[in-house]
Amino acid sequence: MSGEKMEGNQTSSNVQRRKGGLRTMPFIFANEVSEKLAVVGFSANMVSYLTEELHLPLTKAANTLTNFGGTASLTPLIGAFIADSFAGRFWTITVASIIYLIGMISLTASAVLPSMRPPPCEENQVCQVANSSQLAILYVSLLLTSIGSGGIRPCVVSFGADQFDGPDKKQKTRTWKFFNWYYFGMGVSILVAVTVIVYVQDNVGWGWGLGIPTIAMFLSIITFALGYRLYQNMDPVGSPFTRLIQVIVAASKKRKLPMVSDPNLLYENEELDAGISTTGKLLHSKQFSFLDKAAIITDEDDPKSPNLWRLNTVHRVEELKSVIRMGPIWAAGIVLITAYVQQGTFSLRQAKTMNRHLTKSFEIPAGSMTVFTMVFMLSTITLYDRLLIRIARHYTGLDRGITFIQRMGIGFAISILATLVSGFVETKRRNAAIAYGLVDKPHSIIPISVFWLVPQYGLHGIAEAFMSIGHLEFFYDQAPESMRSTGAALFWTSIAVGNYFSTFLVSIIHKYTAKPGRTDWLDSNLNKGKLEYFYWLITALQTINLVYYLICARFYTMKPIQLRQKEEEPEGVELAQRV
Prior knowledge:
GO molecular function: transmembrane transporter activity
Transmembrane segments: 90-116, 136-160, 181-200, 206-228, 362-384, 404-425, 488-513, 533-556
Structural class: mainly alpha
Protein name: Major facilitator superfamily (MFS) profile domain-containing protein
Number of domains: 2
CATH superfamily of the largest domain: MFS general substrate transporter like domains
Keywords: Membrane, Transmembrane, Transmembrane helix
CATH topology of the largest domain: Growth Hormone, Chain: A
Pfam family, one: PTR2
Largest sheet: 3 strands, antiparallel
Number of strands: 5
Shape: globular
Strand content: under 5%
CATH class of the largest domain: Mainly Alpha
């Protein structure tokens, strides 16, 4: 990211105060809500589409879903690089939204045109699986939406937080609240997707089921562009990754030099760092001291016009240290995502085998079961923001109630309970199938209420309200200011790796448990499988992961920064060190 630069007169604080703030939120949230409406409206019911419309086997459908989710969460690294390096967040979001729209139009066309799908299954005949051409159209459409997501996801959240991170101190204190609002708005859009959109897909058709979010995406691009004059924009100042590499190269070249006795002797150049340290200067920290050698001045260096491949400032060295410090916390989120994504794969298949009738004439679509995740998540966010923070603030003295490190830890613990419960509920569901003689009838409905699945969906929602928001806030807060889009992208890459790890886990378990003489844990006929074993394996992995996280959290060091006051004090006055 870059220095803060207002369009118009930079020296006028009155002009600055007219930029950003709450009034920009409808324009920004419109884009994020539409993207979530589109992606969730399809992915929530994607297993049904792949198995029932394209006739793919369950394991292949599940892996397609997690691979798609992983790719869509990995491309934000590219989008963040483009935004932070040269394009800026506004233009990255705009162009990415257009690419996303093209993918959605293609996806809708594939659902409408019969030639893009295999023929419907006929009774007592083997279903024809989608051919390579039909799958290619599907994958190209998904790839375009993944690329579009890569520009939207890391930039929308950072762009929104930037509106509260300007020189107006009253706005700046609201930054941590923005993440609750952001996730709440995202949750509402997901709630609409898993109810209205999924209902349309199941009862009206996939054409309208995908067409509605496509239209919403088109309207959101128009809405987002209309707010252009209100936005507080950050100018890009070149590739942050280049700066990180320069520090590594410089430290490597000077690896044989002895360390200086006093950190104050390390290279500082406020003029050089002006564009990447407008909110505050990073201070020297003792961790990873070998990197400090990149800031040692030798006779070969010219401090007035440094060769950045040999000499870097303390601020730039600390940028790299901040990124390294975030790594272990980033990795802790992977296993949680692996557990969470099962709601859209195996949990959905569980729901399809259970009694989903609310009344004799109305049946809950299986893809809409995640509505309980969203309801519990939204309720938890509201309760947290309106009550729990006030109670915690009384004891901790923190404006946000608890730290984002503590918030993530609570989410990890609740997620373990959610997966453990999933295993016990699956045991009950399968025992009911055995009792009613339905083991060999995978398409028959077991007379057991689908509401038995509500606890696992609800607990996952509560866990997400704590862990995911805390994780997102952590990356924004701890990333160097010039890399905040990249920080948000790290949040999405943990989701990507979690999806890929789920694919790996499913493939390995299917491979080694599907052998002759063994019970395939993940058999397409869940009544014959041992899905509960899969859930309990993930529970064990999550428990180990929680211990790992607690160790990482215990030794984590917040980035040391000296903030600058811009509103009441003269420009450039340094205030306080944040530890």
